[in-house]
Amino acid sequence: MDIQSISPDIIHKSAAGDIQAFAEIYKSASSFVYNVALRTARNREDAQEITQEVFLKVFKNLRDFRFKSSFKTWLYRITVNTALNALKKAAHERRRQFAYHENISAELPTQAEAIETSLDHSGQKEQVNKMLETLNPEYRTCIVLREMQGLRYDEIAQVLQININTVRSRLKRAREMLLKRGGYHEMQ
Amino acid sequence: MKCNKFRDIIITDHVDGELDEQGKQELASHLQECAGCREFAAAVLAVAVDPLRKTTPEEPPAFLWTRLQSRLEQEQRNHSGLKWLQVLATSAMFLAMVLTGNYLVSGMVGTTNSQEVVASSEVASQLSLSEFNDMPNEQVETVYNNIIGG
Question: Which end of chain A, N or C, is more open, meaning fewer C-beta atoms within 10 Å of its C-beta?
Protein backbone atom coordinates (compact mmCIF):
# COMPACT_ATOMS: atom_id res chain seq x y z
CA MET A 1 0.00 0.00 0.00
CA ASP A 2 1.43 3.39 -0.93
CA ILE A 3 0.40 7.03 -0.60
CA GLN A 4 -1.32 7.04 -4.01
CA SER A 5 -3.78 4.43 -2.81
CA ILE A 6 -5.19 6.53 0.03
CA SER A 7 -8.85 7.11 -0.83
CA PRO A 8 -10.68 10.43 -0.32
CA ASP A 9 -13.03 8.51 2.00
CA ILE A 10 -10.13 7.63 4.33
CA ILE A 11 -9.01 11.26 4.24
CA HIS A 12 -12.52 12.51 5.11
CA LYS A 13 -12.91 10.02 7.96
CA SER A 14 -9.48 10.91 9.34
CA ALA A 15 -10.31 14.61 9.09
CA ALA A 16 -13.38 13.92 11.22
CA GLY A 17 -11.10 12.45 13.90
CA ASP A 18 -11.36 8.71 13.09
CA ILE A 19 -8.04 7.34 14.38
CA GLN A 20 -8.60 3.91 12.79
CA ALA A 21 -8.95 5.57 9.38
CA PHE A 22 -5.86 7.63 10.12
CA ALA A 23 -3.99 4.37 10.79
CA GLU A 24 -4.46 3.59 7.08
CA ILE A 25 -2.77 6.87 6.13
CA TYR A 26 0.02 6.09 8.56
CA LYS A 27 0.51 2.60 7.07
CA SER A 28 0.75 4.01 3.56
CA ALA A 29 2.97 6.99 4.26
CA SER A 30 5.06 6.21 7.32
CA SER A 31 7.86 4.54 5.37
CA PHE A 32 8.36 7.61 3.19
CA VAL A 33 8.14 10.05 6.10
CA TYR A 34 10.48 8.02 8.29
CA ASN A 35 13.11 7.60 5.57
CA VAL A 36 13.12 11.29 4.68
CA ALA A 37 13.48 12.00 8.39
CA LEU A 38 16.29 9.45 8.70
CA ARG A 39 18.24 11.11 5.90
CA THR A 40 17.80 14.60 7.26
CA ALA A 41 18.00 14.01 11.01
CA ARG A 42 21.21 13.20 12.82
CA ASN A 43 20.02 9.99 14.46
CA ARG A 44 17.12 7.54 14.76
CA GLU A 45 15.63 9.20 17.84
CA ASP A 46 15.40 12.52 16.00
CA ALA A 47 13.95 10.78 12.93
CA GLN A 48 11.27 9.18 15.11
CA GLU A 49 10.46 12.57 16.65
CA ILE A 50 10.17 14.14 13.20
CA THR A 51 7.95 11.30 11.96
CA GLN A 52 5.63 11.68 14.93
CA GLU A 53 5.49 15.45 14.49
CA VAL A 54 4.64 15.10 10.79
CA PHE A 55 1.70 12.78 11.48
CA LEU A 56 0.43 14.96 14.32
CA LYS A 57 0.47 17.95 11.96
CA VAL A 58 -1.29 15.93 9.25
CA PHE A 59 -3.97 14.78 11.72
CA LYS A 60 -4.57 18.29 13.05
CA ASN A 61 -4.63 19.94 9.63
CA LEU A 62 -6.54 17.35 7.61
CA ARG A 63 -9.83 19.19 8.09
CA ASP A 64 -8.28 22.14 6.21
CA PHE A 65 -7.11 19.97 3.30
CA ARG A 66 -9.22 21.04 0.32
CA PHE A 67 -7.99 18.57 -2.35
CA LYS A 68 -6.60 21.50 -4.39
CA SER A 69 -3.23 19.77 -4.56
CA SER A 70 -2.72 16.02 -4.38
CA PHE A 71 -2.66 14.52 -0.90
CA LYS A 72 0.76 13.05 -1.71
CA THR A 73 2.25 16.47 -2.52
CA TRP A 74 0.65 17.98 0.58
CA LEU A 75 2.05 15.24 2.82
CA TYR A 76 5.50 15.44 1.20
CA ARG A 77 5.51 19.19 1.79
CA ILE A 78 4.68 18.82 5.49
CA THR A 79 7.38 16.13 5.79
CA VAL A 80 10.05 18.20 4.10
CA ASN A 81 9.21 21.37 6.01
CA THR A 82 9.17 19.57 9.36
CA ALA A 83 12.46 17.83 8.58
CA LEU A 84 14.02 21.10 7.42
CA ASN A 85 12.93 22.90 10.56
CA ALA A 86 14.35 20.14 12.72
CA LEU A 87 17.58 20.30 10.75
CA LYS A 88 17.86 24.06 11.15
CA LYS A 89 17.13 23.77 14.86
CA ALA A 90 19.83 21.11 15.23
CA ALA A 91 22.30 23.22 13.24
CA HIS A 92 21.56 26.21 15.46
CA GLU A 93 22.13 24.08 18.54
CA ARG A 94 25.42 22.76 17.11
CA ARG A 95 26.61 26.32 16.36
CA ARG A 96 25.75 27.33 19.90
CA GLN A 97 27.65 24.38 21.34
CA PHE A 98 30.52 24.97 18.93
CA ALA A 99 30.86 28.57 20.07
CA TYR A 100 30.87 27.35 23.65
CA HIS A 101 33.48 24.66 23.09
CA GLU A 102 35.48 26.48 20.43
CA ASN A 103 38.84 25.94 22.07
CA ILE A 104 38.28 22.25 22.65
CA SER A 105 37.05 21.60 19.12
CA ALA A 106 40.27 22.98 17.65
CA GLU A 107 41.91 19.74 18.80
CA LEU A 108 39.26 17.52 17.20
CA PRO A 109 39.47 16.28 13.59
CA THR A 110 37.83 18.48 10.97
CA GLN A 111 34.48 17.47 9.51
CA ALA A 112 36.12 16.29 6.28
CA GLU A 113 38.62 14.15 8.17
CA ALA A 114 35.85 12.68 10.26
CA ILE A 115 33.88 11.81 7.12
CA GLU A 116 36.83 10.14 5.46
CA THR A 117 37.47 8.08 8.57
CA SER A 118 33.85 7.03 8.76
CA LEU A 119 33.80 6.08 5.07
CA ASP A 120 36.57 3.63 5.78
CA HIS A 121 35.11 2.06 8.88
CA SER A 122 31.32 2.23 8.90
CA GLY A 123 28.45 0.70 6.99
CA GLN A 124 26.79 1.89 3.82
CA LYS A 125 23.92 3.69 5.56
CA GLU A 126 26.29 5.53 7.81
CA GLN A 127 28.33 6.53 4.77
CA VAL A 128 25.26 7.86 3.05
CA ASN A 129 24.24 9.83 6.10
CA LYS A 130 27.71 11.29 6.46
CA MET A 131 27.67 12.26 2.80
CA LEU A 132 24.31 13.96 3.19
CA GLU A 133 25.40 15.76 6.33
CA THR A 134 27.91 17.73 4.31
CA LEU A 135 25.13 19.26 2.20
CA ASN A 136 23.13 22.28 3.22
CA PRO A 137 19.46 21.60 4.05
CA GLU A 138 18.06 22.82 0.70
CA TYR A 139 20.41 20.67 -1.38
CA ARG A 140 19.95 17.71 0.92
CA THR A 141 16.14 17.84 0.66
CA CYS A 142 16.31 17.89 -3.13
CA ILE A 143 18.68 14.93 -3.24
CA VAL A 144 16.63 12.92 -0.76
CA LEU A 145 13.38 13.46 -2.68
CA ARG A 146 15.05 12.58 -5.96
CA GLU A 147 17.15 9.58 -4.92
CA MET A 148 15.03 8.01 -2.24
CA GLN A 149 11.54 8.60 -3.45
CA GLY A 150 12.39 8.87 -7.13
CA LEU A 151 10.41 12.08 -7.58
CA ARG A 152 10.63 13.76 -10.98
CA TYR A 153 11.89 17.33 -11.26
CA ASP A 154 8.37 18.74 -11.65
CA GLU A 155 7.19 16.82 -8.56
CA ILE A 156 10.13 18.08 -6.47
CA ALA A 157 9.36 21.60 -7.68
CA GLN A 158 5.75 21.22 -6.52
CA VAL A 159 6.69 19.85 -3.10
CA LEU A 160 9.34 22.47 -2.41
CA GLN A 161 7.39 25.22 -4.19
CA ILE A 162 10.38 26.23 -6.26
CA ASN A 163 11.13 26.63 -9.95
CA ILE A 164 12.06 23.49 -11.90
CA ASN A 165 15.40 25.07 -12.89
CA THR A 166 16.14 25.66 -9.21
CA VAL A 167 15.58 21.93 -8.64
CA ARG A 168 18.05 21.18 -11.43
CA SER A 169 20.69 23.60 -10.12
CA ARG A 170 20.34 22.36 -6.52
CA LEU A 171 20.82 18.76 -7.65
CA LYS A 172 23.82 19.81 -9.70
CA ARG A 173 25.44 21.67 -6.81
CA ALA A 174 24.68 18.87 -4.36
CA ARG A 175 26.24 16.22 -6.60
CA GLU A 176 29.27 18.38 -7.30
CA MET A 177 29.79 18.66 -3.54
CA LEU A 178 29.42 14.90 -3.12
CA LEU A 179 31.95 14.33 -5.91
CA LYS A 180 34.39 16.68 -4.26
CA ARG A 181 33.90 15.00 -0.89
CA GLY A 182 34.41 11.65 -2.59
CA GLY A 183 37.78 12.83 -3.81
CA TYR A 184 36.87 13.24 -7.48
CA HIS A 185 38.66 16.07 -9.22
CA GLU A 186 37.50 16.96 -12.68
CA MET A 187 39.93 16.45 -15.54
CA GLN A 188 39.36 18.11 -18.90
CA MET B 1 28.39 21.95 -27.47
CA LYS B 2 31.41 22.04 -25.16
CA CYS B 3 32.29 19.47 -22.50
CA ASN B 4 31.19 21.65 -19.57
CA LYS B 5 27.70 21.94 -21.09
CA PHE B 6 27.55 18.16 -21.51
CA ARG B 7 28.72 17.69 -17.93
CA ASP B 8 25.90 19.93 -16.68
CA ILE B 9 23.53 17.59 -18.48
CA ILE B 10 25.27 14.43 -17.25
CA ILE B 11 25.11 15.44 -13.59
CA THR B 12 21.41 16.33 -13.78
CA ASP B 13 19.02 15.34 -16.59
CA HIS B 14 21.07 12.35 -17.78
CA VAL B 15 21.37 10.55 -14.43
CA ASP B 16 17.80 11.49 -13.54
CA GLY B 17 16.26 10.26 -16.77
CA GLU B 18 14.89 13.67 -17.70
CA LEU B 19 16.48 13.94 -21.16
CA ASP B 20 14.32 13.85 -24.29
CA GLU B 21 15.23 11.61 -27.25
CA GLN B 22 17.22 14.27 -29.07
CA GLY B 23 19.19 15.11 -25.92
CA LYS B 24 19.94 11.45 -25.33
CA GLN B 25 21.30 11.03 -28.87
CA GLU B 26 23.47 14.15 -28.69
CA LEU B 27 24.95 13.06 -25.38
CA ALA B 28 25.51 9.48 -26.54
CA SER B 29 27.48 10.60 -29.58
CA HIS B 30 29.55 13.01 -27.46
CA LEU B 31 30.34 10.29 -24.91
CA GLN B 32 31.56 8.02 -27.69
CA GLU B 33 34.28 10.45 -28.62
CA CYS B 34 35.10 12.10 -25.22
CA ALA B 35 36.96 10.00 -22.64
CA GLY B 36 36.94 12.85 -20.06
CA CYS B 37 33.15 13.09 -20.09
CA ARG B 38 32.82 9.29 -19.96
CA GLU B 39 34.96 9.27 -16.87
CA PHE B 40 32.94 12.12 -15.39
CA ALA B 41 29.65 10.28 -16.03
CA ALA B 42 31.01 7.13 -14.36
CA ALA B 43 32.22 9.12 -11.34
CA VAL B 44 28.88 10.89 -10.92
CA LEU B 45 27.07 7.56 -10.83
CA ALA B 46 29.60 5.83 -8.57
CA VAL B 47 30.11 8.63 -6.03
CA ALA B 48 27.06 10.90 -6.02
CA VAL B 49 24.14 8.80 -7.27
CA ASP B 50 24.38 5.04 -6.72
CA PRO B 51 25.29 5.05 -3.00
CA LEU B 52 22.10 7.00 -2.31
CA ARG B 53 19.86 5.08 -4.70
CA LYS B 54 21.06 1.71 -3.48
CA THR B 55 20.29 2.43 0.14
CA THR B 56 17.38 0.21 1.14
CA PRO B 57 14.59 2.08 2.89
CA GLU B 58 13.96 1.27 6.54
CA GLU B 59 10.59 0.57 8.06
CA PRO B 60 9.69 2.76 11.05
CA PRO B 61 9.73 0.84 14.36
CA ALA B 62 6.35 -0.60 15.37
CA PHE B 63 6.25 1.28 18.67
CA LEU B 64 6.11 4.55 16.74
CA TRP B 65 2.46 4.00 15.78
CA THR B 66 1.54 3.02 19.35
CA ARG B 67 3.21 6.18 20.63
CA LEU B 68 1.57 8.29 17.96
CA GLN B 69 -1.83 6.73 18.59
CA SER B 70 -1.76 7.69 22.26
CA ARG B 71 -0.66 11.22 21.31
CA LEU B 72 -3.58 11.44 18.87
CA GLU B 73 -6.04 10.25 21.51
CA GLN B 74 -4.61 12.74 23.96
CA GLU B 75 -4.91 15.42 21.29
CA GLN B 76 -8.56 14.53 20.75
CA ARG B 77 -9.30 14.61 24.47
CA ASN B 78 -7.65 18.02 24.76
CA HIS B 79 -9.51 19.23 21.71
CA SER B 80 -12.93 18.06 22.91
CA GLY B 81 -12.17 19.34 26.43
CA LEU B 82 -11.20 22.68 24.96
CA LYS B 83 -14.36 22.74 22.85
CA TRP B 84 -16.51 22.11 25.93
CA LEU B 85 -14.67 24.81 27.80
CA GLN B 86 -15.30 27.20 24.93
CA VAL B 87 -19.00 26.33 24.88
CA LEU B 88 -19.21 26.74 28.63
CA ALA B 89 -17.33 30.03 28.62
CA THR B 90 -19.47 31.40 25.79
CA SER B 91 -22.68 30.31 27.53
CA ALA B 92 -21.55 31.76 30.85
CA MET B 93 -20.61 35.04 29.19
CA PHE B 94 -23.94 35.22 27.38
CA LEU B 95 -25.84 34.47 30.57
CA ALA B 96 -23.87 37.07 32.48
CA MET B 97 -24.55 39.66 29.79
CA VAL B 98 -28.28 38.90 29.77
CA LEU B 99 -28.50 39.03 33.56
CA THR B 100 -26.49 42.24 33.81
CA GLY B 101 -28.52 43.85 31.06
CA ASN B 102 -31.76 42.78 32.67
CA TYR B 103 -30.63 44.05 36.07
CA LEU B 104 -29.45 47.39 34.67
CA VAL B 105 -32.58 47.97 32.64
CA SER B 106 -34.98 47.09 35.45
CA GLY B 107 -32.82 48.99 37.98
CA MET B 108 -32.71 52.11 35.81
CA VAL B 109 -36.43 52.12 35.16
CA GLY B 110 -37.27 51.45 38.81
CA THR B 111 -34.75 53.96 40.17
CA THR B 112 -35.76 56.75 37.83
CA ASN B 113 -39.43 56.46 38.52
CA SER B 114 -39.25 56.01 42.26
CA GLN B 115 -36.47 58.58 42.85
CA GLU B 116 -38.22 61.18 40.74
CA VAL B 117 -41.46 60.69 42.63
CA VAL B 118 -39.74 60.91 46.01
CA ALA B 119 -37.67 63.95 45.05
CA SER B 120 -40.50 65.92 43.57
CA SER B 121 -42.84 65.23 46.47
CA GLU B 122 -40.12 66.17 49.00
CA VAL B 123 -39.32 69.42 47.23
CA ALA B 124 -42.97 70.22 46.85
CA SER B 125 -43.69 69.64 50.52
CA GLN B 126 -40.63 71.62 51.67
CA LEU B 127 -41.11 74.58 49.43
CA SER B 128 -44.94 74.58 49.28
CA LEU B 129 -44.75 75.02 45.51
CA SER B 130 -48.49 75.61 45.28
CA GLU B 131 -47.89 79.10 46.70
CA PHE B 132 -45.91 80.07 43.59
CA ASN B 133 -48.65 79.09 41.19
CA ASP B 134 -50.10 82.54 40.76
CA MET B 135 -46.80 84.47 40.88
CA PRO B 136 -45.59 86.18 37.65
CA ASN B 137 -42.44 84.74 36.07
CA GLU B 138 -40.15 87.70 36.90
CA GLN B 139 -41.11 87.49 40.55
CA VAL B 140 -40.46 83.75 40.68
CA GLU B 141 -37.02 84.49 39.26
CA THR B 142 -36.30 87.15 41.91
CA VAL B 143 -37.41 84.86 44.73
CA TYR B 144 -35.31 82.02 43.26
CA ASN B 145 -32.24 84.30 43.05
CA ASN B 146 -32.78 85.48 46.61
CA ILE B 147 -32.96 81.91 47.91
CA ILE B 148 -30.10 80.46 45.86
CA GLY B 149 -27.87 83.49 45.81
CA GLY B 150 -28.50 84.09 49.52
Answer: C
